[in-house]
Specification:
Largest sheet: 8 strands, mixed
Number of helices: 14
CATH topology of the largest domain: FAD/NAD(P)-binding domain
Structural class: alpha/beta
CATH superfamily of the largest domain: FAD/NAD(P)-binding domain
Helix content: 25-40%
Number of domains: 2
Strand content: 15-25%
Radius of gyration: 23 Å
CATH class of the largest domain: Alpha Beta
Bound molecules: 3-acetylpyridine adenine dinucleotide
Length: about 500
C-alpha cells in the first residue's frame, strides 16, 4: 500500500478523469517532478470520450498521426483516420508506459469538491463517500459526454428500444429493424452509413443539413508503418505537415469569405454523390461552412440514396409509442430510435458540486456564462485548473494540442510556486475578464458566429466553447503562465 492510499494523506495534485487530458496532465506533472498525484476515474478503464462513444462507425475526424499525444506517438496507425476501437486500444495499451498503474483509482466518481480556505487545499468526495485531500485539483473531465436528449414531447413514451449515440446498446438487435436517427451532426454522419447497411428501413430526421467534405482516408500499409517507426523524423514531419494544413483551415474559418474553395469542394462532393436534385437541395446547408463542425465523410451521402433509407426534413411534432409523428401529420413507425443529438458541455461541471473560496459555487459563478483565464482557471476557485475548459475547444485542429499546452502551463505554474514556497494561486478577476474580452472581440465575423445553432454558442449568443484563432497563438499565450494573471499566497 502506498501512502496516497490513505485518505488522510494530502496529495499534491488530484486529477479528475483518465481520458487523453488526465493522462497528459499526469505525464506533465511527472516530468516536472511532482510524484505525489493521483488520477481518479469514474469508469473501470482509461479512455474518456473514446471509451464512451462506441457507436458503429465512430472514428476520429482529425488525422491519427496528429491526433496522438506528442510524447506517445504511434507509428502503427492502420489508417489515416482510424476508428474508435484503434484509438482506445492505443490509449489502453500505452498509458501505463508513462504512468504507474497504481496512481489511477478506477470506479471513483467525483461528486463534491470543497475548498478549505484555512488549510489551502481541496477536499474531494466520491459518490461512495470516499474522501481525498489535495493541494491542487485538475479537472480533466472532457466536454462531450453528458448526452443532450431532445426535448421532443413524448420521448419517454416510445415503446421500442431507444438510446443516445454516446450510450450505444450493443446488446440490442438492430439488423433488419425499422430504425430512426434524430440528428445529422458529426456523430450521426459516421453512424448513418453503418446503420443503413444493417437496417430493414432507416429514417434520418434532419433538422439542419451539415456541410460535408470528402474524407481523405487511406490505409497505411505495413511497410509504411515500419518506415514511420524507424524514421521518427519522417513521422514528425508528417505530423507537422498535418498540423499546418489544419491551421490553414482556421484562416478560412476566421474569415469565411476566404472559404470559397472549401464551399466549392463540399458542393461538388454533394453534387457528385447525390444525383437526385430534390434530395440534393434538402442536403444543402444555408449557413456558413464551419459554423457547425464540418463533417468528413465519403459514405454519408451515398447511404442516403439507398432504397432502404429515407431522409425526413419535416419538423418532428412528437414521439409516440409506435414511432415519430411529423408536423405534417405523418407517423413514421419505428422499432429503434437513436438520438444522435449531441451533448450538454456545461452539464459536465454542473453535475459536480464545486465550492470555492467564500462558499462560491462554480455552477452559480458560471450560470450566465463560463468565465475563466485561458479556459484554465477561474477567479474565486483557487488551486483548481481545467483542461479543455471554456473557450479552448477547437473547430479546426487536434484538441490534444490544446490539452498539452494547458498541461504545460499548469505544471510550470506549480513548479514556480514550489520554488517560491507558495501554496495558493487564483486567477485574478481582471485577467479572467481580459480573456473573455479577447474571445468576444475575435468572435464576430468568424464562421462560428454565422448564425447557426451549435454547442459552441449558448442561448444568449455567447461563444462558450471555442478558442477563436490559430491554435499556435493559444500556445504562445498559455505555455508560460504570467505572474500578473494570478494572485499568489
Ligand atoms: O452532436 P451535434 P454530435 N430535434 O451537437 C440535432 C464531436 N465529435 O454528437 O443542427 C431534432 O453536432 C441537431 O440539429 P441542429 C465534435 O466536436 C467529434 O454529432 O441543432 N434534431 C444536430 O443535427 C462535434 O461537434 C468526432 O438543427 C435535434 C444533431 O442533433 C461534437 O462531438 C466525431 C434536436 C446534434 O449534432 C458533437 O457532435 C463525432 C431536436 N430536438 C463527434 N436536438 C471526431 O471525429 C438536436 N438535434 C473527433
Amino acid at each position: 500500500m502506498t501512502d496516497y492510499d490513505n485518505a488522510a494523506t494530502l496529495l499534491d495534485v488530484l486529477i479528475v478523469g483518465a481520458g487523453f487530458s488526465g493522462l497528459a496532465m499526469a505525464h506533465a506533472l511527472q516530468r516536472s517532478g511532482v510524484a505525489h498525484y493521483r488520477i481518479v476515474e469514474k469508469a473501470a478503464s482509461v479512455g474518456g470520450t473514446w471509451r464512451e462513444n462506441t457507436y458503429p462507425g465512430a472514428a476520429c475526424d482529425v488525422p491519427s498521426h496528429l491526433y496522438s499525444l506528442s510524447f506517445a506517438a504511434n507509428a502503427r496507425w492502420s489508417r489515416f483516420f482510424v476508428g474508435q476501437a484503434e484509438i482506445l486500444a492505443h490509449l489502453q495499451t500505452s498509458w501505463s508506459d508513462w504512468i504507474a498503474r497504481g496512481l489511477v483509482s478506477f470506479g471513483w466518481q467525483l461528486c463534491d469538491l470543497r475548498w478549505d480556505a484555512e488549510a489551502h487545499h481541496w477536499i474531494a468526495r466520491s459518490s461512495s463517500g470516499e474522501q481525498l485531500r489535495a493541494r491542487f485539483v485538475v479537472s480533466a473531465l472532457g466536454g462531450l459526454h453528458v448526452p443532450n436528449l431532445p426535448d421532443i414531447p413524448g420521448r419517454e413514451q416510445f415503446a421500442g428500444a431507444s438510446w443516445h449515440s454516446a450510450r450505444w446498446q450493443h446488446e440490442q438487435p438492430i439488423a433488419g429493424k425499422r430504425i430512426g436517427v434524430i440528428g445529422t451532426g458529426t456523430s450521426a454522419i459516421q453512424l448513418i452509413p453503418e446503420l443503413a447497411r444493417l437496417a430493414g428501413q432507416l429514417t434520418v430526421f434532419q433538422r439542419t443539413p451539415v456541410w460535408v467534405l470528402p474524407r481523405p482516408d487511406l490505409r497505411i500499409r505495413r511497410w509504411m508503418q515500419s518506415l514511420l517507426e524507424r524514421a521518427p523524423m519522417l513521422r514528425l514531419s508528417l505530423r507537422g505537415a498535418l498540423y499546418l494544413m489544419l491551421e490553414a483551415l482556421s484562416l478560412t474559418l476566421l474569415r469565411p469569405r476566404t472559404a470559397f474553395w472549401a464551399r466549392a469542394s463540399a458542393r461538388f462532393h454533394l453534387w457528385r454523390q447525390v444525383r437526385d436534385p430534390a434530395l440534393r437541395s434538402r442536403l444543402r446547408p444555408d449557413y456558413p461552412l464551419g459554423c457547425k463542425r464540418i463533417a468528413l465523410s465519403n459514405d454519408f451521402y451515398p447511404s442516403l440514396t439507398r432504397g432502404n433509407v429515407m431522409l425526413e426534413s419535416a419538423k418532428i411534432a412528437a414521439i409516440e409509442p409506435s414511432g415519430v409523428r411529423l408536423a405534417d401529420g405523418r407517423l413514421i413507425e419505428l422499432d429503434v430510435l437513436i438520438h444522435a443529438t449531441g451533448f450538454r458541455p456545461m452539464d459536465v461541471i454542473a453535475d459536480i458540486c464545486i465550492t470555492g473560496s467564500g462558499d462560491r459555487k462554480l455552477s452559480a459563478a458560471w450560470a450566465e456564462r463560463p468565465r475563466s483565464l485561458l479556459g484554465l482557471a477561474a477567479n474565486g476557485f483557487p488551486n483548481l485548473f481545467f483542461l479543455l475548459g471554456p473557450n479552448t475547444a477547437l473547430g479546426h485542429n487536434s484538441v490534444l494540442y490544446m490539452i498539452e499546452t494547458q498541461a504545460l502551463h499548469i505544471s510550470r505554474l506549480l513548479e514556480r510556486m514550489r520554488a517560491r514556497g507558495q501554496t495558493r494561486v487564483e486567477a485574478t478577476a481582471a485577467a479572467e475578464q481580459a480573456f473573455i474580452d479577447r474571445i468576444d472581440a475575435a468572435f464576430p465575423g468568424t464562421a462560428w458566429a454565422g448564425g447557426c445553432t451549435s454547442w459552441y454558442v449558448d442561448a444568449r449568443g455567447h461563444n462558450i466553447a471555442l478558442w477563436v484563432g490559430p491554435s499556435w497563438r493559444y500556445r504562445l499565450l498559455a505555455r508560460r503562465p504570467r505572474d500578473s494573471d494570478y494572485e499568489f499566497a
